[in-house]
Amino acid sequence: MGPKAANPLWPGFTRSGGSTLGPDWVRPAPTVSQQRFDVIAVVVLLPLFWLRFQLTTSVGLWQDSDRAAFEAMVWSVVLGLAFAVRRRYPLWCLMYGIAAASLATIFNPQAVSTFPLDLFLYSLVYTAAAWGQSRKRTNIALAILVLSQIWSLAYRINAPAIIAQVEAVKNPSGNLPAHFSNSLFLIGLTIFYTTASWIVGTIGWRNARQQEELRLGAVELKAAQDKNAYQAVLADRVRIARELHDVVAHHVSIIGIQASAARRTMGRDPDSAAKALSEVETSSRQAVGEMRTLLGVLRSEDEPSLTEATASLDLVDTRDPSLTPLPGLSDLPALVEKVSATGLNAQFRVVGQPFPVPRSMGLSLYRSAQEALANVRRHSTTLAAHVTLRYLEGTAVEVDVQDIGSPSGAPQGTGLGHRGMRERASLHGGEVEIGPMPTGGFRVRMRLPITNEPALVEAPASGSAPVSKTEARP
Description:
The protein has 13 helices and 7 strands. It is an alpha+beta fold. The strands form 2 sheets. It has a 5-stranded mixed sheet, covered by helices on one side. Strands 2-7 form a two-stranded antiparallel ribbon. α8 packs across α12. Mean pLDDT is 75; it is low at 1-19, 302-323 and 464-474.
């Protein structure tokens, strides 16, 4: 299957399947505002850290305080440079931070155990877990981090400067050895900070993934809604075109026949010409009435139900008395009688026990018979047609229009009438048979099954012929 064609009404409707992202999903790059925030944070924090080092040095909390404070400030600036671009290059910044922390441990283990360096370093750990583009590379960075932390702990625990600082404390009040307690404290604090930073970063990455899924789901939902709206517009256009074709074609055909008859008989038989013109007037009024009804349905502001929406525009706003209901099965005898008045000997009969049917089905059957009779007048040489309405024991209803003539040689139509009948049958899950008969003539038969639709029903049609279970071929 080829790629989907672009459509201006739903340009985003190109993804298939659900909105779940694949395992290779990459978190989008940070926004400009996020990167600006990191730079501003470094600019604000570094002066605060310098002030902190000055205060701690002044109260004598550090051995060799001037050197230690200076080195701690230097390493804070070094790590702060990575913090400023941490979201743009998360894994590279983490590797940079690990290398800087390792060098700081070698130069002065005492200077490493400070809040500024810990803040910058573990922020880089969090960022790598939350913003790493490749989860495989991110896990490798985690392994390198763990190894570096193990080495750093071992080095700091056994560093002479740390041991000397611990042993310099006079009169310890604890029950454990001072060096053991300091080692346990450093190990626990490092494990806690590293684990917490990585877990929180992973949660941030998953939250970003879920937000992306929600965003894509909203895009697909909007695209599906646009597509459904577009298809609904197309369906309405098809239904409107079908109704207009059936209404206009039928009445204009009658008007044309009667006008031709009036023209031919006007000189020698004024009464027949007047009768034909009267039929022209009646047909034109009926055409205008049905058009007004159709337009009234289209302009109705009431929201139709599901069945009403699929009823092929068979609803009428009864609050407007000028609108008449669209025709149904009960109007078939009048349709046949009107066609007979144009010179075509049309006969109507009902077979089976009549029962109420949905209005939408009645309209579809009526329009099919109307189109079939119009085609008989336009394209057949016959002077007789037979219209049969069959009630099939509560399971289906069908209308059958047959003529025994041959093609008249008139110009072929557009085929819209046959297409409209097939669409009507498909709308109700029925079937339609259109074509010549083996014994000669032409047949149009539409059968619609009875389904469990709401009670939008009309009274059954009645015919001039007696109701029977069987039927003879015309």
